[in-house]
Write a structure and sequence with these properties.
about 280 residues; alpha+beta; 2 domains; 3-stranded antiparallel beta sheet
């Protein structure tokens, strides 16, 4: 080979490597950009009603509803609780109050000075939800009341009619998260940024629902549940998918897949279990 041919071959080789590297970089950049463009959030659809929440709000809603399921309360109780928490804190566990209640804290803006518990207790979402339900069930006929009336009887707010604006959200998310509406909750999420921890998921699951039988194998958690409870757990896993790095949930012949982003789809699965798969190679 002449010197000119050798030089030409070297140039062609270098250009090929550069083009290949550029293609890989461009492809990686486009993937990253498309991930950033995804608007994350959760939607609950029940019949003709639809409501949307941010992912952190949906996770708090899932806990509030799970507590009602654990206590054997009707979905109406969860609807009242969700509408209340949305009005009081936007379904976020805030550590401050307002002029009307400077010591108000947490999801329900409960006031230690009014006997709701210590500041640390009302800042614990699990404690706060149970405290709200403790007060709600003491109201005779609460399940037949308008949501805003029942909420006001518990909260004694300076704005008693404000809870009404959150009724659609409360009903939609309560129905889906309690399992009354199968495949009623969907979350659109970016790819996980870290691997999932099956044991951490099981700890949070037990804190929310109590002693629901579950087991872990690799990055998969199997939860023994049927009927409404199965769908409640499945929707809880979807609502917590961002925090817990959940990538797929299978239940009752249907599957939710984080990467597909196409909602619940038919999927052959054994009955009597909820299968939750967590990320194994995030990023």
């Amino acid at each position: 080979m002449t010197q000119r041919r050798k030089l030409r071959a070297a140039v062609v080789g270098a250009l090929s490597v550069a083009l290949l590297g550029g293609g890989i970089y461009t492809g990686f950049t486009l993937v990253q950009r498309s991930e950033r463009l995804i608007v994350e959030g959760c939607t609950a659809k029940v019949g003709s009603q639809q409501a949307d929440l941010a992912t952190d709000q949906a996770a708090n809603a899932a806990l509030i509803v799970a507590v009602s399921v654990r206590r054997g309360l009707p979905p109406r109780a969860a609807s009242i609780a969700l509408a209340t928490a949305m009005q009081e804190s936007k379904l976020r566990n805030i550590d401050h109050g307002d002029l009307a209640g400077p010591d108000s804290r947490g999801l329900f803006q409960q006031r230690p000075s009014q006997g709701w518990g210590t500041t640390a207790q009302v800042m614990d979402p699990l404690y706060a939800a149970n405290a709200f339900y403790d007060a709600l069930v003491e109201i005779p006929g609460y399940a037949a009341m308008d949501i805003t009336e029942a909420a006001q009887r518990v909260q004694r707010s300076a704005y008693p009619r404000a809870y009404a604006q959150h009724e659609t959200m409360g009903r939609s998310f309560a129905s889906a998260l309690s399992g009354q509406t199968p495949a009623g909750l969907d979350c659109t999420l970016r790819s996980p940024e870290r691997n999932g921890d099956p044991e951490a998921l099981r700890v949070q699951l037990e804190a929310a629902y109590g002693s629901v039988p579950s087991s872990a194998a690799g990055q998969t958690v199997e939860v023994e549940a049927t009927d409404d409870l199965a769908w409640s757990v499945a929707h809880w896993a979807v609502a917590n998918a961002k925090e817990l790095a959940v990538v797929q949930v299978d239940v009752d012949g249907m599957s939710w897949n984080r990467q597909a982003r196409n909602g619940w789809q038919d999927f052959p699965a054994a009955g009597g279990t909820v299968t939750i798969t967590l990320a194994a190679e995030a990023g």
